[in-house]
């Protein structure tokens, strides 16, 4: 549910189910329902299982509204209004524990729906979003009456976008994010079968949900959906068996844990070059910069690491998105925030030198990170040197990118690490001499002043790092 504040537009990611479509109107998130979907909504809202899920916040807040202006209004028999998700993220930006908790919420909802005579049409990870570190199911239009003798229609999608990525992380120690980013529909059973051959065939969850699933798909490749359903009914498949299957998958998912991977960034706060005086001065500067002006609606902490400054930003902003490249670091941050019940910080996995592009149909079904950002405050602390030296991105390009993530008048807090700083020297040692002649404090300040109005400046006590606070377009 995208980040639009005014005007009417159709949500680019909502078109695959012709029975309903999501729109944005003046900050509202609306869903048009056709005649059949409207009837299913009335039955759903009157059921015993659905209102408690709404009340608990496990399904996004939803209410019927009277005929707002939506395109093709004659097509829609009813219109719903949903709560707005603070920041839309994609499953390939989540950590292992985030994906697992999203999967468990999906299964919990399905487990509640089946005894009440409902199921979900699909099982996609994209049906879930986040309020901070609290997962929430957003695809209300996915609920439909369950038919006796029919399997869960969303099983394949659930495997491909939720279960299979978790199996990759738990059994093979692979980061699933690149796999999900590469294919909007997730990982195919045939791909998984090739990865889990030999003794790996016997790993938890693999025999049934990889090899048997793949064999059944290949065996039924020429059979119609109606034929498959008829075969299952003839074999005695029942709603009770479907519920038992869901419980079995839920038990499996709960037991999956990621393989620990060694990472320099996991212990960054202890191993980084900051002195105690540097850290104290930096925190005072960031606090002052964030408190100077209107309260930000959305703040980005780019290169968030363990979330130290994301937590600080959350005291001064309505919502904080904390972006970090290392999946293990994000996983630890997510677990810490979850334990603390934090609902205003969303941790995401992303390489800032390769941020999430637009994807899916026509490249807009899944919006790019830049299109979703539109932030009122940006923290870029100890990140510029990693992009400029570590990834060879020219300083003007780095600053253009940062400014492009901001709304007009947004505050930017950025740290420049001088060439003589130990971390910069370490990065430069692996580069040809003279490759970065423009990487100098004076040049950085000149470039920043050309794009923003600098309001504060501070050299940290160590003398090798400078902090700037600036107003974008000011």
Question: Which properties best describe this structure?
Answer:
474 residues, alpha/beta, 7-stranded mixed sheet, 5-stranded antiparallel sheet, 18 helices, disordered N terminus
Overview of the molecule:
Helix content is 40%, strand content 19%. The chain has 18 helices and 16 strands. It has 474 residues and is of the alpha/beta class. Helix 12 (308-314) links the parallel strand 10 and strand 11 (319-324). Helix 3 packs antiparallel against helix 4 (155-172), helix 3 runs antiparallel to helix 9 and helix 6 packs across helix 7 (206-219).
Task: Give the N-to-C terminal Cα separation.
Answer: 30 Å
Number of helices: 18
- Using the alpha-carbon principal axes, give the shape: globular
Roughly how many Å is the radius of gyration? Answer: 24 Å
Helix content: 25-40%
Order the strands across the largest sheet as they lie in space. Answer: 12-11-10-13-14-16-15
Which regions are unreliable across 5 or more consecutive residues at pLDDT < 50?
Answer: 1-5
Number of strands: 16
Structural class by secondary-structure content: alpha/beta
Give the biggest beta sheet.
Answer: 7 strands, mixed
Task: Kindly report the average pLDDT value.
Answer: 91
- In terms of DSSP E residues, the strand content is 15-25%
């Amino acid at each position: 549910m995208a980040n639009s504040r005014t005007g009417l537009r159709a949500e680019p990611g909502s078109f695959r189910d012709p029975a309903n479509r999501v729109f944005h109107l003046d900050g509202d998130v609306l869903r048009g329902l056709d005649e059949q979907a409207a009837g299913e909504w009335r039955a759903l809202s009157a059921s015993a299982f659905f209102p408690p899920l709404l009340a608990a916040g496990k399904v996004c807040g939803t209410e019927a509204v009277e005929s707002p202006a939506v395109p093709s209004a004659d097509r829609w028999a009813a219109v719903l209004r949903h709560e707005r998700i603070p920041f839309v993220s994609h499953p390939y930006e989540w950590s292992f524990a985030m994906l697992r908790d999203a999967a468990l919420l999906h299964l919990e909802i399905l487990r509640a729906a089946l005894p009440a005579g409902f199921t979900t049409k699909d099982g996609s990870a994209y049906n879930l979003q986040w309020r901070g570190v609290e997962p929430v199911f957003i695809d209300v239009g996915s609920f439909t009456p369950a038919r006796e003798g029919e399997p869960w229609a969303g099983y394949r999608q659930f495997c491909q976008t939720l279960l299979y990525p978790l199996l990759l992380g738990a059994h093979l120690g692979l980061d699933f994010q690149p796999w999900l980013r590469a294919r909007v529909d997730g990982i195919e059973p045939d791909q998984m079968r090739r990865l889990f051959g030999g003794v790996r065939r016997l790993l938890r969850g693999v025999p049934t949900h990889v090899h048997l699933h793949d064999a059944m798909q290949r065996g039924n490749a020429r059979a119609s959906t109606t034929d498959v359903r008829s075969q299952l009914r003839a074999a005695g498949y029942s709603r009770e068996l479907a519920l038992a299957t869901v419980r079995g998958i839920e038990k499996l998912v709960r037991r999956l844990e990621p393989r620990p991977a060694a990472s320099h960034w996991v212990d960054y706060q202890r191993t980084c070059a900051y002195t105690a005086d540097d850290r104290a001065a930096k925190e005072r500067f960031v606090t002052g910069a964030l408190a100077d002006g209107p309260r930000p609606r959305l703040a980005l902490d780019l290169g968030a690491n363990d979330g130290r400054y994301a937590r600080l930003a959350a005291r001064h902003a309505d919502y904080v998105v904390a972006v970090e490249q290392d999946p293990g670091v994000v996983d630890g941050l997510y677990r810490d925030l979850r334990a603390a019940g934090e609902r205003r910080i969303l941790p995401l996995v992303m390489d800032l030198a390769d941020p999430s592009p637009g994807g899916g149909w026509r490249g807009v079904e899944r919006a790019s990170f830049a299109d979703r950002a539109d932030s009122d405050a940006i923290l870029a602390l100890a990140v510029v040197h990693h992009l400029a030296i570590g990834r060879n991105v020219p300083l003007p390009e780095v600053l253009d990118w940062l400014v492009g993530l901001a709304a007009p008048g947004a505050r930017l807090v950025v740290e420049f690490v001088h060439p003589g700083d130990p971390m910069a020297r370490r990065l430069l040692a692996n580069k040809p001499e003279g490759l970065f002649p423009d990487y100098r404090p004076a040049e950085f300040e000149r470039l920043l002043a050309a794009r923003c109005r600098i309001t504060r400046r501070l050299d940290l006590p160590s003398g090798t790092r400078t902090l700037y606070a600036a107003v974008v377009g000011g």
